[in-house]
Amino acid sequence: MVKILIVEDEEFYGAFLKKIIEKKYSCDRAKNGNEAKILLFRNLYDIIIYDLRLPGIFGRDLIKYVRQKVDPDIVNIVVTGYEEDWPAIDATEEHIFFYLRKGNFRPEELLKVIDNAVQIRLIKQKERAYIKNLIASEKLASTGKLAAGIAHEINNPLRSMITITEVLKKKLLSFENWGTIEPDITILEKDMSRIKSTVNQLIDCHRIDHTIKGNSQLKTILERVVSFIHPIAKEKNTKIFIQYTAKNVNIYVSESQFFYVLLNVCMSLLDYSNESISIETEKLKNYIAIQIRTTKKETKKEEKKEEPQKYTDTIGLEISKSIIHHLGGTIKFADSERGELITIKFPFSTENTEHETHITL
Predict the structure, then answer these.
(1) Mean pLDDT of all residues belonging to the chain
(2) What φ, ψ does residue 48 adopt, rounded to 5°?
(3) Which of 89, 97, 252, 289 is least enclosed by beta carbons within 10 angstroms?
């Protein structure tokens, strides 16, 4: 909902502006600069209408404060009877959207200006969200490249270690104390196999194709995600559960993109104080749903209870939303004192069966 702040010290004129604007938009009024700062601290505003001559602080200085300290994308409108204080041509050069003279406009003209200001505000917000998502995507892409580079560097000596271990094993088979050495060799082989699997997963992540939709199994994707995050979850004492209740459902998505979204969500959830993360599939009337539910760790009574961070506060959320919407699905978030619930839905495929993603659970 659009919210507007009027900063006007004249009682009659301030009430006049508020009465006009409240016909269409939510509106607050401050009588001076200090009141305006208090309201700006407590509330989020999209548009501010300023008088220039105000008690305590000049309107021009308040605008500068808003742009530098509050939100540079708030749309600023000046309504003044003292044009000589700040000529209109100078004001518009300093990012003032519109400049009105007191007593020189009709109520419908003011509302029209505000309507246009609302559209400008929406455009600015979309631009900011796009730039934020773009920066986040670039950071994630760079991280992926770095991870893939590290994985390749690990892969080369790892291959040599595996080969040498196999040679040593053959040589030691004839050793009379082989029985005491065999358990150590087995542990070494198991650990190297685990490292190899993790390295391959890192390389696969970097190979994600963001354009092609193809045949894939949801169960396989979910198991890959859980396999990838399991070592991290173990370190953080977070339990991972996965349950399949949907069966024989076809949807049409890009396997690599969907894997990326699920991995991104689960990795982000591991950053918070969650006791467990459960993943469940469900077949609804026209949708296949994947629900990711978290349970927060309980804090002791004597411990200071702080407001827990949420996945919905992260920049990764916007990227996940963009990808899911691109794939034709929806993603919704709900939270409570016990945890968060992330629900991803996809409609049943209406595509040609040759191109459907077959999900067999």
Answers:
(1) 77
(2) -125, 135
(3) 89
Degrees, nearest 5: CA angle 21-27-30: 115
Distance between CA atoms of 324 and 330, rounded to whole angstroms?
A: 6
- Do 299 and 262 meet the contact criterion of CB atoms below 8 Å apart? no
Cβ–Cβ under 8 Å, residues 225 and 266: yes
Q: What percent of the chain has pLDDT over 90?
A: 16
Q: Report in angstroms the alpha-carbon separations of 345 from 104, 259, 332.
A: 54, 14, 9
Where are the strands (E) in the chain, listed by range?
Answer: 3-7, 26-30, 47-50, 75-80, 98-101, 239-244, 249-251, 274-283, 287-296, 330-335, 340-347, 357-359
3 state DSSP class of 334: strand
Residue 58: both structure tokens together: 């000049």
Assess whether pLDDT exceeds 70 at residue 208: no
User: Residue 82's domain is classified under what CATH number?
Assistant: 3.40.50.2300
**325 and 231, same structural domain?**
yes
Number of domains in the chain: 3
Residue 186 CB-density burial (10 A; 0-12 exposed, 13-18 middle, 19+ buried): exposed
Q: Name the residue among 289, 273, 297 with its Cα closest to residue 332.
A: 289
